[in-house]
Amino acid sequence: MITIQDAWTHPDLPWLSDLVTRHQSVIKRRLGHGDLNRWSEALSNIPIISTDTLSLGRAVGLDRIPQDTEQPLEDALRGLIPWRKGPFKFGSIELDTEWRSDLKWDRLNTTINLANHRVLDVGSGSGYYLWRMLELGATEALGIDPSILFHCQFAAIKSLLGHPKAASLPVTLEEFNAGVLDFDTVFSMGVLYHRKDPINHLEHLKRWVKPGGQLVLETLVVDGDETTCLVPPDRYARMNNVWFLPSVAALSRWLGRIGFESIECLDVSITTTNEQRKTDWMQFESFEHVVDPDNDALTVEGLPRPMRAVLWAKLPGT
């Protein structure tokens, strides 16, 4: 039977048990979530599926599953709604998540080398990118995210895929303590603008990048020079937890000031409803509700429409 603990256990990751022990008090606190029993029941209803049709591509999942498992599997997965990051596909079940995360991955996967890397994904959500990282050659992938629902979703996908070498912990970056463990590549995608102290977030990311390792940073940005940074007066795109939106040039300067080098901007993209939208698997408000209906260059608050950048940076070697 699948349980949430499947998210943070793996027999082939010898360092993982130490991390779980190290974060036991935080994990125990997160497991007190009032909806965990409902989500655990959904996990327990996921059928055991034996198949060799694993796909870690654009729609992560299983190409074929027995027909008699499709309805019970879909019912169980719907018990874990809302699904934010994906897509996933199991046989004819198309799990259409709010974010087309495959589009974001397309913007960086051709320029990032993950071969034989141990990777950390900060703000990993349901774990979609962890599977794409393994596809790109990473040998071990760890995600961290405080949301217990996301870890239930990850446990479901991980078990269905046959437990590839990935795991996730229900902790924030500020709570995360890997001891002497470090990572060849650290990702932070869609997290920086939620932090009241962005420099502190970057310093925490740097702490877990091994000497000579790389950081991949994706965040909301605005147009401007090295001194430009938008601080919304209240909400931004209906979100009340957005604090700093720097320009690419300012963000590059921040990274350089704390010790990264060879900083490159890999992509800048305007967010559209093709990438983020309400779906049958995420039925709450989404991107179509945040753009000014009379001026699509602005949010409903009158601020610049969401634009996202991907930056790459290297930590000097020893």
N-to-C order of helices and strands: HHHEEHEEEEHEHEHEEHEEEHEE
Low-confidence stretches: none
Going across the biggest sheet, name each strand in turn. Answer: 9-8-7-10-11-15-14
CATH topology descriptor: Rossmann fold
Helix content: 25-40%
Query: What does the average pLDDT come to?
Result: 95
Structural class: alpha/beta
Number of alpha- plus pi-helical segments: 9
Percent range for β-strand residues? 15-25%
Query: Biggest β-sheet, characterized?
Result: 7 strands, mixed
Please tally the β strands and state the result.
15
Which architecture would the CATH scheme give at its second level?
Answer: 3-Layer(aba) Sandwich
Radius of gyration: 19 Å
N-to-C terminal Cα separation, in Å? 46 Å
Coarse morphology: globular
SSE layout and pairings?
Blueprint: H1 16-22, H2 24-30, H3 36-44, E1 54-55, E2 60-62, H4 67-78, E3 85-86, E4 88-90, E5 93-95, E6 99-100, H5 101-106, E7 118-122, H6 128-135, E8 140-144, H7 148-160, E9 166-169, E10 183-189, H8 198-207, E11 209-221, E12 229-230, E13 245-246, H9 248-257, E14 261-270, E15 307-314
Parallel strand pairs: 2-4, 3-6, 7-8, 7-10, 8-9, 10-11
Antiparallel strand pairs: 1-2, 4-5, 11-15, 12-13, 14-15
